[in-house]
Structures are given as C-alpha cells and as structure tokens.
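thought: fold this chain, then report.
action: predict
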Amino acid sequence: MTHTQLHPVWDSFIRGYHWLQAFTIGGLWYTGTEGLMDWHFSLAYFLLALISTRLIWGVFGSETAQFSRFVRSPVTVINYLAASLRGDKTSYSPGHNPAGAYMVVAFMLLLITQLTTGLFANDDIISEGPFAYLVSGETSSLLTEIHAINFNIILGAIGLHLTAIAVYFLRKENLITPMLTGRKRLNDDELPKVVSGIWGWVIFFVIGIIVYVTLAKDVVAYLI
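observation:
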C-alpha cells in the first residue's frame, strides 16, 4: 500500500534557476526596450552563466533535473496530450510531464539562440556584442535581426507556458507551489533522487567568475 506525502522534487538550484531566469528575461526586455545597453549586456552575461550551469546540472544534478530522465519520445508526448485532452489520469515522472519537458528544451534552445546572436549583434550606433568584430557587418546585422525576431518567439513561448500553468491550475494541479517549496505530494514508490542544490550554485559561481573575467568585467565596471 502506497502513501501520498510531500516529498522533495526540485532542488534549490532548479528552483532558483527557474525564478532567476524569469526575472532576468523581464529585465532584458526592459533594458533592451529602453536602450539601457550596459545593463542589458550585464543581464545577458548573468543569464549566460545561469544557462551554462543548467546544462551541466542537466547531466549531473537531481533526477528531476536530468534531461535523460524527463525528455521522452514524440510518441510518448502525443499519447500524453491525447490522454490529457480526454481527461484521463496520466502517470509519469514526478518532475516535468512529457509535454512540459519539450517546453523546457525548446525554451532553453530559444534562450541559447538569443544569447549567441546577442554576442555578435550591433545597433549600428554605439553598442555591439563582444564578438561582433569577428564577423562582417552584414553578418552582424543579420544576427541582430534574428536576435530581435527570436525574442518575439520567446515572448510567445512565455505566453504558452503561462497558459499551460493556468490550465493545469483549473484542473486542480498546482505547478507553482512545488517550484517555490521544492516539494510535491507523491506516492512512496515514485520518489526521485534529489541532489543538494548547493553544488549547482557552486558550479554557477565558478562559471559566473569565468564569464565575468572573459566577457563582463568592463561592462560591470562601467556600471559600478
């Protein structure tokens, strides 16, 4: 007989990553819109360190953070969505559901594209990415255009994500609280292995120093 109790699901790094990513994207949107490019670049470097750590944590972190654990085949995702539309109860890993896992991967690919193009972008006036000088002006302009278009796609992905959260909430499944507390009500026989998130923060700190020394030092010094 199984008992349902609150158990750890999301480690502290995954939870911190989730909320820091959300606030950083908001900050990038605001600073980019207002032309606060030094702040924009600083936030972008912060996000670069954050995502780089998440990729590493997706291999060595908690089971619910590992890509190999939650990314399923397209057939599994289709079956999950079909069952959800029918209102059938579905049972998968205690972390991301199959459809949510694809959303996580898609969102990370969009952000990696955004950061990569930003490194080569320029505004034809004052600001340019740290690697813009490595490519031709034409290539830099193309990447700048992709940078702008891709951010609109990111906004659409955010809207889809918020819609999904609302739908699940209406169906009596709260996805927000576990991402705040790290705990979720689970059966005793489906508990994931959760690693201490402190190690994730240590990796983030090391990568942050590398990003600061190699890319962000001059921009941050100007702001200070």
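thought: worth noting. The longest strand covers residues 4-8.
final: tokens above.
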